[in-house]
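ESCALATION

Customer reports they have been waiting on this structure for their group meeting. Please prioritize. Original submission:
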Amino acid sequence: MKKSREKFQYKLRSCVWEITLACSFSCNYCGSRAGRPAENELDTGECLDLVRQFRELGLRRVNLIGGEVFMRPDWKQIVSALAGAGIRVCIITNGFVLSDGDLAFLRTAGIESVAVSLDGPPGIHDAWRMDGSFSKAVNAIERVHSAGIPVSVITALRRDNAAVLDTFYGGTLKKLPLFAWQLQSCAPMGNAAHDPDALLFDFGEVIRFVGEIAPAAPFAVGIADNIGYFTPEEPMIRGKKGKVFGGCRAGLSTVGIDSTGNVTGCESMKDSFFIEGKIRERSLADIWYSPDAFRYNRGFRKSMLAGKCAKCPEGPYCAGGCRSYNFFTSDSIYESKYCALRR
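Update from on-call: job pushed to the front of the queue and completed.
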């Protein structure tokens, strides 16, 4: 069995792990419906055993998310175990409860980076979160940088903040000590499902904006996998010059694990349709190596493309785009309804 797994076509390299739903906020657009911890979240022993499984599978990187990572009481034990296993760790945070003690620990643990959620100018950011949350996030960015830890910003795009990206970039982000800025589309899942129209914006306009600023920006600027695809700006918008979107990686090289141990191909897949197994019932290896797992990607054929993607010459290369975003916005996971490529 071990020998056959060594020859397995799909190598698990990264994981987004939602270690708790506890959060200082309960944002109107939160895809996880965070706020309170979920019932029966994985305990410390289960989390540490999962780290062992990561190591045995050869996992290289884990992005820890919540909720809010720093609100889980044993988060330091989890980070220490990951770092001790030689796994690179990035923590994604809202920055609201980050203490000096937390920063000192992160510096000692040698984590790879911290990403702070910052969604626009103060009025927009605070309106969706809490009064004062913008200043807290900016302060966290500056403190993380001062602690010698690389820091980036993640912006979840909706109609309101997509319209002011130029102002946000010039008035706020260019002044911050960042190494990267990632823009992603907010999907109508979780709390955000109540008003999907508020999430709609022109992908093409955002792509053109990033294509214009990326060459001279003081930090890397990239667009997440749920916005695209194959416009003339493509080689400039994925955070690294020359990189192009090669299709959804869920179940091909990445997994998502939620706070109760459900395994999906990506932590943006917030629906039972995507659950491949539960850590409390099966090992991660058993789930990953199952011949029936992640069939939506492992079994993809270009004949599965739907709608306008079925007629697009780029369809076989992007494979129809982001499975999760398609699921929540289209009639098929194989059609990118809002793709910026005009056909």
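Sent to customer with the following note: The radius of gyration is 19 Å.
Escalation resolved.
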